[in-house]
Amino acid sequence: MAIILGLESSCDETAAAIVRSDRTILSHALAGQEDHHRAFGGVVPEIAARAHAELMTPLVETALADAGMTLHDVDAIAATAGPGLIGGVMVGLVTAKALAMASGKPLIAVNHLEGHALSPRLVDADLSFPYLLLLVSGGHCQLLRVNGVGDYNRLATTIDDAVGEAFDKTAKILGLGFPGGPAVERAAALGNAKNVPLPRPLKGADEPHFSFAGLKSAVLRAHETGQYKVEDIAASFQQAVIDCLYDRIRYTLDRIDAPAALVVAGGVAANVPIRNMLEGLAASRGMRFVAPPLWLCTDNGVMIAWAGAERFAMGLTDGLDFVARPRWPLDPNAAPARGAGVKA
Amino acid sequence: MRTLVIDTATRACSVALFDGKQLLAAQHEVIGRGHAERLLPLIAALPDNGKADQIMVDVGPGSFTGIRVGVAAAKALGLAWRIQVHGYGCLSLVAAMARAQSGSQAAVDVIMTGGHGEYFFEAFNDTGHSIAPARSVLPELLATVALADHVAGDIDPQRGDRVWTDILPDARAWAHLPDDHALPPVPVYGRAPDAKPAAVRA
Questions:
Q1: Where are the annotated coiled coils located (chain B) (predicted)?
Q2: ipTM of the shown complex
Q3: What is the CATH number of the domain that holds A142?
Q4: Does residue B40 belong to the interface with chain A, where contact is any CB pair within 8 Å?
């Protein structure tokens, strides 16, 4: 059985974790940077990079100590090599390169999105390829067919904002604080989703893609009228997101030979009403629904170590000259989505 | 006592392995960018993968990314080999190199490329020690600084009455630093991040 150390530093979480290929999590160290960024209302890349540089090595030491191990006990060292904020990615990747070189262990450069995409297999040993994955985070909103490690078909993507981005911007507009996802979900629980008329962008459209920019703008306009409670806007926004996701996923399911499981991953998968909708949709299609526990949905080192374990099992390792990638699509062959630009 | 020296704070990417103060092996390349890709292969090309009893790393000021690459690698190597990691100042090494090259013990001022068109400036006395911490200054301010007779660094001071030595830091010159040069292995950025808090912006 292989033991993999995984490092994550692509946004505002610094993390190190050790995972064994039999799905045992041996340790899991994580330091959030919310306090560093709160005053700015969002993640500032240079501040994030500075914090990663300060925190990464101590977290590796913690992960090793918590697992009762030294580097000699580890079989390979995995790190997020992109996509993400490049200054932070470089800190984690260079740390992993140095650990790998000094200990004589192989380096595994992990696509952060593959970390999310494979994390459901860590907690569900019965989840086999292929599966349909909804990847929803602050930077992405994609529907993917996961055929295997490193093998993805992107079926749909957002043509503008990521769904997590829409949550963060809505939180900022409504003054709900940072990070926005949990803040909007909490406020929404206290509001009435029928009180504020908001659009459902691309609902019913004869294309598979997602769109959330217009919804965010409608939230801004609704808030500026002064006639709605913040909680009602939050609830109506969240319901509009759910309606859009439901409609768009159903569009794709109607047109493909659906795999046996519908899987959700990424930070927005921590949103409970969205999970509930997906669970119902899967059930109505006779699909199994798999969602990682909430803590595994947001960025962490465990999913990077696990993706490293999956790649290591296939003999996939990387050189010390691996170049960090700010953009790194899971399906580089996907046709461009109309108007999607670089986010596709 | 072996020392691995790592310098990635500027356009140069250089590593050196010393036994005491005797240079055993080194690699020095002026690459501009891409330190995160070059650094570990350069260290791996040193004897015994660069394994040493202590690590000295350039902590800046200089390129934000370059400093982070060097410090992150140094700390990780220190963890893996269970050895001490120390820092040294980027401009201190340039000053030491200038003194060694000229053979003079006189004071020297160092001017290096900074961020956003600014320069890092630091003055060193006749023992090679810094008079005041490096500051980031606007180019036009240099005209108002009472420069020493000898100026070093990668910025030409454009002052014909001063001797200028064009120098980028080079790990091979580490032994020229004053004996008490060690700093904590913590980046010295020399400039705050550009972002301003929302309240300040408004």
A1: none
A2: 0.95
A3: 3.30.420.40
A4: yes
Facing B68 at nearest CB: one of A53, A99, A322: A53
Domain of A101, in residue numbers = 3-118+295-314
pLDDT of residue A340: 65
pLDDT in tens, A312-333: 999 999 999 999 999 999 999 9
**Range with the poorest average pLDDT among A34-48, A218-232, B81-95, B172-186:** A34-48
Residue A210 per-residue DSSP state: B
Show the tokens assigned to A95: 């740390």
- How many angstroms separate the first and last alpha carbons of chain B? 55
> CA end-to-end span of chain A, whole Å?
37
CATH number of B2-89+169-176: 3.30.420.40
How many Cβ atoms sit within 10 Å of the Cβ of residue B180? 7
Among B62, B63, B41, smallest CA distance to B50 is for B41
* Residue B202 pLDDT class (50, 70, 90 cuts): very low
- Is the bond leading into A332 cis (omega within 30 degrees of zero)? no
Name which of B40, B43, B84 to mutate to probe chain A: the one with the most chain A Cβ atoms within 10 A of its Cβ: B40
Is 3.30.420.40 the CATH classification of the domain at B91-166?
Answer: yes
Any known ligand binding at A66? no
Position A232 in a domain:
yes
Looking at chain B, how many residues does it have? Answer: 202
What is the DSSP secondary-structure string of chain B? -EEEEEE-SSSEEEEEEEETTEEEEEEEEE-SS-HHHHHHHHHHTSGGGG--SEEEEE--SS-HHHHHHHHHHHHHHHHHHT-EEEEE-HHHHHHHHHHHHHT--S-EEEEEE-STT-EEEEEE-TTS-BSS--EEE-HHHHTTS---SEEEESS----TTSEEEE----GGGGGGS-TT--B-SS---SS--S---HHHH-
Which pLDDT tens digit goes with each residue over B119-177?
999 999 999 999 999 999 999 888 787 789 999 999 998 888 889 999 999 999 999 99
For residues A229 and A280, state if they share a domain: yes
Q: Where in chain B is the domain with CATH 3.30.420.40?
A: 2-89+169-176, 91-166
| 3-state SS class at A77 | strand
